[in-house]
Amino acid sequence: MSARTISEKILSAKSGREVHAGDIAVCNVDRVLGTDASSPMAIDYFERMGGGRLFDPSRVMFAFDHYSPPASPETAAFHDRVRAFAKRHGAISATSARASVSSCSRSAAARFPARSSLGRTATR
Predict the structure, then answer these.
(1) Least C-beta-crowded within 10 Å: which of 16, 64, 70, 92?
(2) Which residues pair with 93 in a beta bridge?
(3) Residues 75-107: pLDDT tens digits?
């Protein structure tokens, strides 16, 4: 067996089969993260596909880290749209990279205390 990357190991574990570079993996995810750069387009696709609800709103998070603070009214409108979508669907909306990591870490620690680390070594 050849050495595998961390991505291959994670995707293999989450897809339930061995995955290698170039494979398509359908996975059960722990968390979904959308940024202010990609979320408006992802929301468009979600709505066009007839998406009515998020699979688990507590696992979906939107981070405003690429264009924050917004430099134009257009960018501010994108942020407003993402925030409204997050609120409507009960997802997490964080306004900075620091808040994003903090929210994600606190959320993970609450759900998976034996596997989470907030500035300390995780134990099993």
Answers:
(1) 16
(2) 62
(3) 999 999 999 999 999 999 987 445 445 455 555
- Model confidence over 11-69: pLDDT tens digits? 999 999 999 999 999 998 899 999 999 999 999 999 999 999 999 999 999 999 888 88
| Domain map (residue ranges) of the chain | 1-27, 31-111
pLDDT of residue 68: 86
Locate 32 and state its tokens.
Answer: 């979904």
Q: Which residues, at least 6 apart from 63, have a Cβ–Cβ distance to it below 8 Å?
A: 33, 34, 35, 36, 94, 96, 97, 99, 100
Indicate the length of the chain as a whole number.
124
**Cβ contact 72:78 at 8 Å:** no
Does the pTM exceed 0.70?
Answer: no
Within 16-123, where are the H helices?
39-48, 73-89, 97-111
Rounded to whole angstroms, the Cα distance separating 85 from 40 reads 10
Question: Of 71, 97, 94, which Cα lies nearest the Cα of 82?
Answer: 94
Please, which residues have CB within 8 angstroms of residue 39's CB and are 6 or more apart in sequence? 62, 78, 82, 85
